[in-house]
Design brief:
Blueprint (H helix, E strand, L loop, with lengths): L1 E3 L21 E3 L21 E5 L1 H8 L14 E6 L5 E8 L5 H6 L4 E7 L6 E7 L2 E8 L2 E7 L7 E6 L24 H6 L19 E13 L1 H6 L4 H23 L1 E5 L22 H15 L7 E7 L6 E3 L11 E5 L4 H15 L54 H12 L8 E8 L2 E3 L6 E4 L4 E3 L2 E3 L7 E6 L28 E3 L2 H5 L15 E9 L8 E11 L6 E4 L6 E3 L3 E7 L12 E7 L8 E8 L3 E5 L7 E10 L5 E3 L4 E4 L5 E6 L16 E6 L27
Parallel strand pairs: 1-16, 11-12, 11-13, 13-15, 18-24, 26-33
Antiparallel strand pairs: 2-3, 3-10, 4-5, 5-6, 6-7, 7-8, 8-9, 9-10, 11-16, 14-15, 17-20, 19-22, 21-23, 23-24, 25-27, 27-30, 28-29, 28-31, 31-32, 31-33, 34-35
Helix pairs in contact: 5-7
């Protein structure tokens, strides 16, 4: 079934917005100004956060003016300011966006959800909600991932705004297996292929292919809770439903953007929000493995097997796992999912654990490649990330200091996982129970300017480039991720194991490997290791359009080989901080070709470029397309002031690799006026009696403004003549 569903952002800009004077609702405070109820203490605090006091009632009154998404009024969203950790207030255009079925939402008007997009940074989106447990917000986009959550439980006055990576599991009493699925009863790779419709074709990749509409897939979500979970949230129906609403809102903040999937809480959810551990139907609620086999039966009994598409249960801390899954949505086992909450910060915990477990129910596989003690949870078919990994289906923070990429997960899915979700929800059994809703959004268009099968040298940096656009003008972001699989300790790659970690999406279409900061500082980063042996490297570029409520996502891959007999390609001169160039000088740049001109790498020409900011950007092309022969003279550009952070970059003109000089050097102004003269085209091949036209470009140095006259200084070969003419 397809419903027409006009998400609000399609009309923003045509009709304006409703102004909201929200700054007064948020007040920065010091810890000494916090007065918590007796016996209430902060449970889990980030390393860094902004402490705030909120006039929640005032904000709630203002939010009553927010239009409902999908209505004509949504063309004029409410403008709301939300606090960021850096001390600023970010304006968002906001609509009400319920994550409950309409009848359920009507029964609980005191619990509401909203969605919006930043006015100033359109790739930045938010989902927030309020209820009996106060206010919770997620703000995600590009390289930013922020939460606003209560500072302590059992109060709704004090809040903290923090970056997600500033919070960790440190201090929580966690089991050895924090996230996972029961491999004895569930194989995501096999389940994904069940029920595939061979008559359907799914276009995963990019490339210019016309305007493709984005369809939102909506699943009825039966999220049950044990009495133990209820005890974490006050033991009341409204308190538990508020927590469940927050968790669903956070889950949608990721699923909508990465896969155009939304979950909505089913009607009669009260039947499965159990409030008393002594009377709920679950046995051994502190064991995730035990709950896994019970939840489907509980949902069938209290909701009805045909009345939900996707089932899950929240409980309090477990002794065996942090979460576990034993089935996929839409299937007979659609209720086999468990998340064990070791914290009452439901927004943060859902982002870290719940979004991981529920992705298994979309047949997503683990992405980590080495995690001592968790070998049984590793999937060799999807081990795309080095060490623990860092995306939502990784084991970030769980693999020990030697293998952890970082201590928490970034709130986005690996591009390989997104493909798995697409296969299952568009072609497999996951397509059989969704409600399809049309949106005004269209997929972005992506193209990679590469063929397959080229070679690069060993131990040499390289840069990958994408070309993309969006037919609706949405602000797209790019995420380059490695697709090779294999298991190896972090920093010790072999065979096809991954070399490069995933970084959050960015508005920059290129990725430099390793990061330019690492190269400039002459460092080695085990999270981004250059290959020093012959192997394959495959990368995927995933492009998101970040359209609120139903993101468009496309991706495309590039694969190439590493030649063990070429490289490292190195800049040799200038390569020391004692070097000084002068503006207008004719000076030599040298580099080690290192066999990169062989038949495999086949680099015939290079570009020589200049940086003046210490090696991060190279706006000056000193010479383009010059032969890759290891030496070339260049003119130094005219600078009026001394440049103290100059670097040279020599890059393959017909490949992706490059190197830069290892140290900053100086360029000083010329001490007298002069000029630079250079041919527009450095090399031409011509056979007599053909005529060659050589355009000579001139640039003044130190204010030179005299006429330049060219002449032939010495005899030309017999039969060759030359004339000069002024370019009109």
């Amino acid at each position: 079934m397809i419903r027409i569903y006009a998400l609000f952002m399609g009309l923003i800009g045509s009709f304006g917005f409703l102004s909201a004077q929200t700054p007064g609702f948020w007040t920065d405070i010091r810890p000494a100004q916090v007065f918590l109820p007796e016996g209430v203490e902060p449970e889990l605090l980030p390393d860094e956060y902004r402490l705030l006091q909120l006039d929640l009632e005032g904000l709630k009154n203002e939010l009553r003016r927010a239009p409902l998404e999908g209505t004509p009024e949504a063309a004029r969203p409410l403008r709301v300011l939300l606090p960021l950790p850096d001390g600023t207030l970010e304006p968002f255009d906001v609509v009400e966006s319920p994550v409950m079925k309409p009848a359920l939402q009507a029964k609980y008007p005191m619990i509401r959800s909203f969605a919006g997009r930043s006015v100033n940074r359109p790739w930045l989106r938010t989902r927030f909600d309020y209820g009996l447990e106060g206010f919770n917000a997620s703000i995600i986009g590009g390289e930013e991932a922020i939460l606003i959550t209560p500072y302590a439980p059992d109060q709704t006055t004090y809040y903290m705004a923090f970056e997600v990576d500033k919070m960790s599991f440190e201090g929580l009493d966690l089991p050895s297996v924090l996230r996972g699925y029961d491999a004895s009863i569930y194989n995501p790779d096999e389940t994904r292929l069940e029920g595939l419709d061979p008559s359907k074709e799914l276009r995963f990749g990019g490339g210019s292919r016309g305007v493709t509409p984005v369809i939102l897939r909506v699943y009825d979500f039966a999220l049950a809770t044990t009495g133990e979970f209820a005890n974490l949230h006050g033991g009341t129906l409204q308190g538990v439903l508020s927590a469940v609403n927050t968790a669903t809102n956070v889950l949608n903040s990721v699923l909508e953007n990465d896969a155009a999937i939304r979950v909505v809480l089913v009607d009669n959810i009260e039947n499965i929000l159990f409030l008393d551990p002594n009377t709920d139907p679950y046995v051994n609620a502190n064991q995730g493995g035990a709950l896994l086999g019970q939840n489907g039966q509980v949902l069938a009994q209290f909701i009805g097997q045909d009345n939900y598409d996707w089932g899950h249960v929240f409980t309090a801390s477990c002794t065996d796992v942090g979460g576990v899954v034993g089935g996929a949505i839409c299937a007979q086992s659609k209720g086999a999912g468990v998340t064990c909450h070791f914290s009452n910060n439901v927004a943060w915990y859902t982002m870290q654990i719940g979004a991981h477990e529920m992705a298994h129910q979309l047949t997503g596989g683990h992405t980590f490649s080495f995690c001592p003690g968790s070998e049984g949870q590793m999937s060799l078919a999807t081990a795309w990330e080095p060490g623990s990994g860092s995306t939502l289906l990784s084991y970030s923070g769980s693999c020990g200091s030697q293998n952890n990429i970082q201590n928490s997960s970034d709130p986005y899915y690996h591009g390989g996982n997104i493909e798995q979700f697409m296969i299952y929800t568009r072609l497999g059994n996951g397509s059989t129970c969704a409600t399809l809703q049309e949106t005004p959004n269209h997929e972005p268009e992506l193209e990679l300017p590469y063929g397959f099968g080229f070679y690069i040298p060993i131990s040499t940096p390289f840069e990958l480039i994408a070309q993309a656009g969006d037919p609706d003008g949405d602000q797209i972001t790019y995420c380059w991720e490695q697709l090779n699989v294999g298991s190896a300790p972090l920093g010790q790659p072999h065979l096809e194991s991954p070399l490069f970690r995933s970084y959050p999406p960015t508005t920059e279409p290129n990725r430099v490997l390793p990061r330019m900061q690492t190269i400039v500082n002459n460092q080695v980063d085990v999270k981004e290791l250059l290959p020093d042996y012959g192997r394959n490297i495959t990368f995927r570029c995933t492009v998101r359009d970040n359209y609120p409520g139903a993101g468009g996502v496309v991706f495309e891959d590039v694969s190439f080989e590493v030649d063990p007999n070429a490289g490292p390609f190195l800049v040799l001169h200038p390569n020391a901080d004692t070097i000084r160039w002068t503006s207008g000088q004719w000076t030599e740049v040298t580099w080690d070709v290192a066999n990169t001109d062989n038949n495999r790498v086949d680099c015939r020409s290079v570009n020589i470029r200049l940086s003046t900011d210490g090696g991060f950007n190279y706006p000056y092309t000193l010479l383009g397309g010059t032969p890759n022969d290891g030496s070339e003279f260049v003119f130094v550009p005219d600078f009026a002031d001394t440049i103290r952070k100059a670097r040279i970059r020599v890059e393959a003109a017909d490949n992706i690799f490059f190197d830069i000089s290892n140290a900053n050097f100086e360029i000083v102004p010329a001490d007298q006026p002069g000029f630079i003269a250079r041919p527009e085209v450095q090399y031409q091949q011509i056979c007599a009696p053909d005529i060659a036209q050589v355009k000579i470009l001139t640039d003044p140095v130190a204010g030179f403004d005299s006429t330049v006259t060219f002449s032939i200084a010495s005899a030309l070969p017999q039969g060759i003549t030359a004339t000069f003419s002024k370019d009109s």
